[in-house]
């Protein structure tokens, strides 16, 4: 997704900033006032209807919390694909948003404020890099899908106006499983949470829940170990590929599925060690620090950079 910003001048130095993490089912907000006060809130979207009703729900939430609108800059983390014309081109979780002119809609909610938005995975990477004090960092978020981002020299790569860092759609196996994007072998199709559970179910011959997978890993049951190992190998393959091109200082693994399956980090680390080559070791891997807050904190950082 293309990162974009309002064309009006940036926020006044002392004005408050607001970060918004727009999800498929929930919206989280965090405002920081000029004097250091922090206000946080969230709300759950209603049933899938249309974008106008969703925006009205967001407007009502903002109206009920004046501290969230008394700001000079707003950063928004969006999971949707937004084109250079500021229109949403795709959002599987809320398909009614397709065609929405996102820029005008956001500026109408915050008249007078500078507004910017970017992919939620990119902003998660920005926040994780800031929390780690690392200016060259690759972040992968493994959950229902696979997102993430790359920060080089303290800035998002590829950067505003050039699209988002879609590591989930990096092709790692042309003969791999079908992806929702229409291709085969994308990292997301192989290593996301649902993909891992589906593979475990195929190996077990019965449905597998996250709890069942964790129990199977605890007991070292072959179907559970094999299913997670394939996920770990796929993630390591993607990390090494990116590492050969841009040489991040470190890699962080996060996301809901990764957090819920601690064995995954060790598995990816082991495969990374095996994929290193003389003079070119794989970048060090560690756990993400911010958990579910990474995209929200990244949105707030974006607001501070306008």
Helical residues, percent: 25-40%
Number of strands: 13
Kindly, what is the distance between the CA atoms of the first and last residues, rounded to a whole number of angstroms?
A: 18 Å
Sequence of strands across the biggest β-sheet:
1-8-5-2-3-4
**Which regions are unreliable across 5 or more consecutive residues at pLDDT < 50?**
none
Q: What is the structural class?
A: alpha/beta
Largest sheet: 6 strands, mixed
The secondary-structure element order is EEEEHEEEHEHEEEHHHHEHHEH
Which key features would you list for this structure?
single chain, alpha/beta, six-stranded mixed β-sheet, five-stranded mixed β-sheet
Short summary:
By secondary structure, the chain is of the alpha/beta class. It is built from 10 helices and 13 strands. α7 packs across α9 (263-275).
Structure description:
The chain has 306 residues and is α/β, with parallel strands linked by helices. It is built from 10 helices and 13 strands. The strands form 3 sheets. The chain has a 6-stranded mixed β-sheet. β3 and β4 form a beta hairpin. α5 packs antiparallel against α7, α6 crosses α7 and α7 packs across α9. The radius of gyration is 20 Å and the shape is globular. The model has no long low-confidence stretch (mean pLDDT 91).
Secondary-structure blueprint of this entry?
Blueprint: E1 4-5, E2 17-22, E3 26-32, E4 38-44, H1 51-63, E5 73-78, E6 81-82, E7 88-90, H2 102-109, E8 114-119, H3 120-132, E9 137-142, E10 146-152, E11 155-157, H4 187-191, H5 193-204, H6 210-218, H7 222-246, E12 250-254, H8 256-260, H9 263-275, E13 285-287, H10 294-305
Parallel strand pairs: 2-5, 5-8, 9-12, 12-13
Antiparallel strand pairs: 1-8, 2-3, 3-4, 6-7, 9-10, 10-11
Helix pairs in contact: 3-10, 5-7, 6-7, 7-9
